[in-house]
Amino acid sequence: MTASTIPILHLYRDRGFVVASARVPHSHLLRAGGGSASRNRRNVHQVAEGGEAMGIGPSVEAERQEMLDVVGREHGFRVHRVEPGSPGDEAGLNSILDYIVVANGIRLDRDDGSFVRMIGESKGEEMRLCVFNTHTLRTRETVLVPRDGWGGAGLLGITIRFDVTHALEKHTLHVLEVYENSPASAAGLDAFNDYIIGVGDLLFDGPDDFGEIIVHNCNRPVRLFVYNAGTEAVREVLITPDRMWGGEGCLGCGVGAGYLHVLPHRRRPHKQKEPARLPAPPPPPAAPPAPTEAPADGVPPVPPVIQLAAAAAAEAAEATATATAEAEAEAEAGAVEAVEAAAAAAPSEEMETLPPSVWSGAPSAEAGFAKAIG
User: Fold this and answer.
1) How do residues 205-253 score in pLDDT, each as one tens digit?
2) 294 pLDDT exceeds 70?
3) What Å distances lie between residue 145 and 58, 88, 156, 243, 278, CA to CA?
4) Burial, 106: exposed, middle or buried (Cβ in 10 Å; 0-12, 13-18, 19+)?
5) φ, ψ (nearest 5 deg) of residue 218
């Protein structure tokens, strides 16, 4: 083979990727190619469009063999861990198997901090990622929206590591048997359906390397990344190796490695999950009432409720005063009538025999002055 080639399986058109059947050197897809990012993207698009027009279609096995040539040569950000319910989980990223190789049309072939800065600058906005999967040996497009408030730490909820693409069969162990009452049984490993593809923060290299890691961590919890053939998903399993569990080995399970124990072909395509709906923002607080203008005399205005209460009290007081005045007038009139009746009943002679000083109250001043001179 003169030049390593892979099929271009992604192409920006309208709002998504379409499959093109062109064959181009893999450096056009996964390398900057000695030019700028925009020039690299232009080359990929031109070759892919030309291939689609010519209708070149290599066989599936040839494509797979050519894609295998990428493994172990090209670099990207390996998705090591995905938190449930995170933006990375919603984007359909798979632990251990996925490598982020392109972000927003820029090839991620160097660990220079540009990808981390891009994530921070894209907070709340869509990022278009090209992801290479070492299981399917295909690239796919997904949309990732960095954001806070998803329920965990970070903007993505994933753990990534810049690394070279690893051949999956080198770090795959097929679980063939699980013994009762063993650490493997307590951890829920499923015989024949489970494949161990990662341990802790490492990608082991074969069963011997995996055994050394397990023995070194005996009696301590170890995180395993396990692919299940039924669900076609990777899950995390916590297991505590123990030599004293009552059987052979530290885990109590039998495993197989090699060509007969590779991951089976995926039956269902990768699907991006529906993003979680953020809670609706609370309604804005009601606007406070407009302040009333103060009168010129500086006395604050009386609220309407107090004004109504004061008016009702004034009416009640006025009614009470009117009733009191009417009662006093009736009593006075009754007293006058009583005096007049008593005066009418007395004889008139007694009134005439009384001297003027008696009925008038006092002698006149002129009479007294004349008497003194005389």
Assistant:
1) 999 999 999 999 999 999 999 999 999 999 999 999 999 999 989 999 9
2) no
3) 35, 8, 8, 45, 13
4) middle
5) -60, 140
17 beta partners = 12
Q: Which amino acid is at 322?
A: T
| Mean of all residue pLDDT scores within the chain | 73
Would you say 245 and 181 are in contact if contact means Cβ atoms under 8 Å apart? Answer: yes
Q: Which residue pairs from 48-51 have beta carbons closer than 8 angstroms and sit at least 24 positions apart in sequence?
A: 48/8, 48/11, 48/20, 48/22, 48/24, 49/11, 49/20, 50/22, 51/8, 51/20, 51/21, 51/22, 51/23, 51/24
In angstroms, how far is CA 182 from the centroid of its own chain? 40
Over residues 262-266, the mean pLDDT reads: 90
Is the pLDDT score of 177 beyond 70? yes
Which of 367 and 67 is assigned the larger pLDDT? 67
As given in the structure block, the two tokens for residue 269 are 């395509």
Distance CA 100, CA 146 (A): 15
Residue written as token pair 């004034």 = 314
Tell the burial category of 70 from Cβ atoms under 10 Å away from its Cβ (0-12, 13-18, 19+).
Answer: buried
Residues in CB range of 347: below 8 A, 6 or more apart: none
Residue 111 CB contacts under 8 Å (≥ 6 apart), including other chains: 162
Residue 80 known to bind ligand:
yes
Q: pLDDT digits over 111-145, tens only?
A: 999 999 999 999 999 999 999 999 998 899 999 99
